[in-house]
Specification:
With 252 residues, the protein is α+β, with helices and mostly antiparallel strands. It contains three helices and 18 strands. 16% of the residues lie in helices and 37% in strands.
Length: 252
């Protein structure tokens, strides 16, 4: 009798487990993860890159980034975290011409300080001829930032009304919609899945041959004291829905 009861309980447990799995599949519940784990094939376009929190690259990334200095790897809540000083970064291994396409950049970011710094850059300096985009130039102690696009002669800027608090994790995203005119292109910024600013008269991004850097300019100058849990670059326009989805799937 006892054996029959145990068999009945096991059968019922198995039925319950299968039902939970079927219910999860029906509701479309997705597991939480790090940034490079939650991007989808639809988010990737062109020579896309995604660097993980330990400095390694997601499978399919166009290149393998090379460290400037010696960034520190740690683990927080079970996820890899890469920490930089103001002179450390990871960057693409060789120069390449910036493509004439839309692009989007996202980084899972935590600031140690809000000194004036470039959180990322495609380029070697802030002179108009020296960069294509500076997605987040932190302005100082208040944590405000400005996003820049250069056509090689002059840059256009978009000031965000959002302020970064040190010690807090954010998903920062910037998108560039290449309309094609001299000053009709569109830059949008997002924080934690919510659009914070838009600029519809941005300059046409120049085809500069240079590299992406994950902190400061290429070569390790004007960076921030900060940490990242992922950096994603893709040559397509991520929508507000795409970015909200990425934030919704990020692990805390």
């Amino acid at each position: 009798m006892l054996a029959l009861l145990l068999l009945s309980l096991v059968a019922e447990h198995g039925h319950h487990t299968r039902e939970v799995r079927r219910t999860g599949a029906r509701t479309g519940v997705q597991p939480k993860g790090a940034l490079c784990d939650v991007i989808t094939n639809n988010d990737k376009s062109g020579s896309w890159e995604c660097m993980k929190g330990d400095g390694t690259m997601a499978t399919g990334s166009a290149t393998t980034f090379v460290a400037t200095g010696a960034p520190t790897n740690t683990t927080v809540n079970g996820f890899a975290v890469r920490t930089y000083t103001s002179t450390q970064n990871d960057q693409q291994p060789a120069n390449a011409a910036f493509p004439a396409t839309d692009f989007s950049v996202c980084r899972h970011h935590r600031s140690t300080s809000n000194a004036v710094a470039q959180l990322m850059a495609f380029g070697t300096s802030g002179a108009a001829a020296g960069y294509v985009t500076l997605p987040w130039e932190v302005q100082g102690a208040g944590g405000n930032w400005v996003s820049y696009i250069s056509n090689g002669t002059a840059g256009s800027s978009l000031a965000s009304s959002y302020s970064l608090t040190t010690g807090t994790w954010y998903l920062l995203c910037m998108t560039y919609q290449r309309v094609g005119g001299a000053a009709d292109n569109v830059v949008r910024t997002y924080v934690n899945g919510v659009q914070t600013a838009t600029h519809s008269t941005a300059r046409l991004a120049q085809a500069l041959s240079n590299k992406w850097s994950t902190n400061g300019y290429v070569g390790g100058s004007t960076g921030a004291a900060c940490s990242v849990r992922g950096v994603f670059i893709t040559y397509k326009l991520l929508s507000a829905t795409d970015i909200a989805r990425l934030y919704g799937r990020l692990a805390p």
